[in-house]
Write a structure and sequence with these properties.
Strand order of the largest sheet: 4-3-2-1-5
Number of strands: 5
Radius of gyration: 28 Å
Helix content: 25-40%
Order of helices and strands: HHEEEEE
Largest sheet: 5 strands, antiparallel
Number of helices: 2
Strand content: 25-35%
Structural class: alpha+beta
Length: 112
């Protein structure tokens, strides 16, 4: 009886350590990557702009023609526009071309 009590004292810490390790592994293998994907999706959805070609979560391809705080207006065919919630945009296929700034030559600069 005395032997059973002595061996039980050292083994009481092991199950707690295993549970802590299990939660640690779950955090780094499941929770943290999901949080990273969500941050990336939120950043992509907030950077949508006019002319971007996107795909919705339903698989519909369209071009962004209007954006406001909560919705995105997509042109899905010539003359056909649909309004979607921002979180319904799954990914950006092609980003719209940004207008290039005109190059400034040294000859164009007027010196006093």
């Amino acid at each position: 009886m005395l032997y059973a009590q002595e061996s039980g004292g050292a083994g009481g810490f092991t199950p707690i350590l295993m549970i802590v390790l299990l939660f640690g592994v779950m955090y780094f293998m499941m929770i943290r990557p999901q949080q990273k994907r969500r941050r990336e999706a939120t950043a992509m959805q907030s950077s949508l702009g006019h002319g971007d070609e996107v795909v919705t979560i339903g698989g519909l391809y369209g071009t962004v023609v209007g954006v406001d705080d909560e919705t995105v207006l997509l042109e899905v065919a010539p003359g056909v526009q649909s309004r979607y919630a921002r979180p319904a945009i799954a990914r950006v296929v092609t980003k719209a071309e940004q207008p290039a700034e005109p190059a400034v030559d040294d000859a164009d600069v007027v010196k006093d």
